[in-house]
């Protein structure tokens, strides 16, 4: 595809891999939040495991920032990524607050093998062999699954219970949506000028991420 214009690679991929994308963003765990049938134990399991995931996500995002500072010609990318780190800071504070409300002892949560597996994958993306294009594309995909999943729970017709709405707004709000669109346009810009090899690797990473996200929901749902 080198030499051929790649204007919106992410769009092409989301169409091509629509079924697996929907598997990640319309998972039964999310549908259970959306219709109010999710049970509290699943929600608490997700909360504890996701807290651990987010802690492991911070160094990954820092690695994307480092790659941007070395490989990107656009200063604005750093601003977007700094905003992402700030959002993660808020996210961690939110997890702590929510856990204390629900009586989840975060310090005693044991990482589930599914979680560890996803964190190992994040670590592989921090390698210097993974360039900025691959890293930013992966970052966009990971954030977008949450944004799209939780935004679905706030759409008209959803029956999300009031006490779960605040969780859904954390990722489903318009600002987070705008932030994901900014990540997406950086990813598309980078992919448009990347080699075929890098584009192929970024697509494989996307598929891996979608699979990890499905597994993560399965774990939260108690189906594994
Ligand atoms: C598993 C997972 N994926 C994505 C996000 C969004 N930061 C998250 N908190 N957890």
Automatic annotation (TrEMBL):
It is an enzyme of class 3 (hydrolase). One of its GO terms (molecular function) is thiaminase activity. It catalyses: N-formyl-4-amino-5-aminomethyl-2-methylpyrimidine + H2O = 4-amino-5-aminomethyl-2-methylpyrimidine + formate; 4-amino-5-aminomethyl-2-methylpyrimidine + H2O = 4-amino-5-hydroxymethyl-2-methylpyrimidine + NH4(+). Gene3D superfamilies: Heme oxygenase-like. Keywords: Disulfide bond, Hydrolase, Thiamine biosynthesis. Residues 15-220 form the Thiaminase-2/PQQC domain. One of its GO terms (biological process) is thiamine biosynthetic process. The keyword Ribonucleoprotein does not apply. Its EC number is 3.5.99.2. Pathway: Cofactor biosynthesis; thiamine diphosphate biosynthesis. Signal peptide: none annotated. The keyword Disulfide bond applies. Belongs to the thiaminase-2 family. This is aminopyrimidine aminohydrolase.
């Amino acid at each position: 595809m080198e030499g051929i214009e790649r204007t919106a690679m992410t769009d092409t991929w989301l169409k091509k891999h629509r079924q697996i994308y929907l598997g990640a963003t319309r998972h039964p765990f999310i549908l259970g939040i959306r219709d109010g049938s999710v049970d509290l134990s699943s929600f608490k399991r997700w909360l504890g495991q996701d807290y651990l995931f987010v802690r492991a996500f911070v160094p990954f995002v820092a690695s994307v920032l480092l790659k941007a500072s070395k490989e990107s010609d656009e200063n604005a990318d750093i601003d977007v990524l700094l905003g992402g780190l700030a959002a993660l800071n808020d996210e961690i504070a939110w997890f702590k607050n929510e856990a204390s409300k629900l009586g989840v002892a975060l310090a005693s949560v044991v990482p589930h093998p599914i979680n560890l597996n996803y964190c190992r994958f994040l670590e592989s993306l921090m390698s210097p062999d993974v360039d900025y294009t691959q890293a930013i594309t992966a970052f966009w995909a990971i954030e977008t699954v949450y944004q799209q999943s939780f935004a679905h729970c706030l759409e008209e017709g959803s029956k999300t219970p009031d006490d779960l709405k605040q969780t859904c707004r954390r990722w489903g709000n318009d600002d987070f949506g705008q932030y994901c669109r900014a990540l997406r346009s950086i990813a598309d810009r980078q992919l448009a000028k990347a080699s075929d090899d890098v584009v192929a690797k970024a697509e494989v990473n996307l598929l891996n991420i979608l699979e990890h996200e499905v597994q993560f929901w399965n774990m939260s749902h108690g189906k594994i």
